[in-house]
Amino acid sequence: MDDTELHRERILRHVSPIITGRFVGFQTSYTREVRIGRPVALTVFLLAGIAQMIGALLRMSPARRTLKELRKGPEFLVTPVRLRDDLGQTYEIEMHGQLPQSALHRGDLIQVRTEPQSDPTLPVRLLQVVNLTTMQPLTPRIPTQWSHLGPALLLQAAVGVTIFGAVMAVWLG
Q1: Which residues contact 133 (CB under 8 A, 6 or more apart)?
Q2: How much is the pTM?
Q3: How distant is the alpha carbon of residue 33 from its chain centre?
């Protein structure tokens, strides 16, 4: 057994939704992908396709993304955050998205609101931080499936729904 095994800090998983402690630091960040469900991606893809066909007839050529690109979903930054409570126990929490790194300094007293993740092997996810030292509330910002699809594609899908509805109303009666 080497020295790192003897002095390894024990990291705990917290189950309470509120954790108060001293900010220890950010760990190395990495990206994680969020997949968009097939029904949502397929519906938006097909409805936007109707508007894009009409646009092609009118000689407008909008950029077309593939269904595979739409299903891939946005990537977001995952940063493990460590804090230590009054008893000296260290907790690791996952922060999805970004916060200004200057908003938290080592030793700041913070209170975090968390929620469990769907994968029970992962640490709890940070929802909001209140830096009690500066009294500054902080919320990490992450991309959503709607921001990934984009306003242009969603607008095309809305036009597609309108056209489809009009065609069905004429056809049925």
Answers
A1: 105, 108, 109, 110
A2: 0.60
A3: 9
